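Quick note —
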Amino acid sequence: MPTQTKQPSLPGETFRGRREFPRWYFYNPFTELEDQISGISATVKTPGWWFDRFLANVIIKDFSFGGAGFIAPNHVQMPTHLILSLENKYSLKCEILHRRQLNRYISFYGTRWEHNGRRIVLTIISKYSRLSRFVQ
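Predicted structure written out below.
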């Protein structure tokens, strides 16, 4: 009987079903996401012609060269394309790939970077990797 090879379903996912890039996690894997307080504080903005419009404060739970995962309040309508900003210093354009509602107040969003700003991503990873709980 021939075995089926799993095809990648998301960009950044390889044929083995594993991520293409290592991911730094900023949470405890033994506690539900909605019950945790760890992570990196950031803001989400929508791109504008003259300036980027603030949408919400978020908590980044994981980060990689391919994208990031963050928790945001449910009352905010997230666009598909947005800007993730850290410390009002680092801004990365990203696209939301999936959303998972954690409870009636917050949701987890998975994103991928829309550009090739590896220098900015590397700077952020080098700065925050010490806060990471584990890498996978």
